[in-house]
Amino acid sequence: MHPIHNVQDWDAPEGAIDWxxxxxxxxxVKATGQIPSEHRSHDHLNEQKDIxxxxxxxxxxxxxxxxxEREWQARGEKVTWALxxxxxxxxxxxxxxxxxxxxxxxxxxxxxxxxxxERHGYHxxxxxxxxxxxxxxxxxxxxxxxxxxxxxxxxxxxxxxVVVTENGKVGDLVVLEPLKVxxxxxxxxxxxxxxxxxKLKAL
Length: 203
Fold this sequence. Notes:
By secondary structure, the chain is mostly helical. The protein contains six helices and four strands.
């Protein structure tokens, strides 16, 4: 419960995620290349929006990553691709350290608020449907988002600050700003995949 607003707080970085469980899960995936059999997701209960990417862009990057996988396999390395997505990814140091590529998609406050308010709600792990009460975004969601990321950016400026590189919380973080990328979703996918490709070449 939020100590001031007296509503359930699903967004405070300390408690929104079971960090020890996530850390253990990631270690298992990296060690075995498989999702543990006991893992269960309820995300399919939430609204899934279609985000179109052109077939040309999808085909091109599929080819790039298949070729990279063949090269690694030729060296005797098994390749497992795993994407971890979440608005609190860079809060927990052990989780951060487990990520081979780190990308932060940054959009401004008004866009974040609009997108949150357009959602029908969230299904919790207990099976309940959570809908934000009035004022929840401004009182709880956005302050928690800023607090979770303020140490990542210079002057704690989450919306405009550059990534703190020297002794920073998240090394090698690449910030992409989708609203400033030309080409819509194709452009964003291109930029993100290019970051992954460059990381692969550097390994």
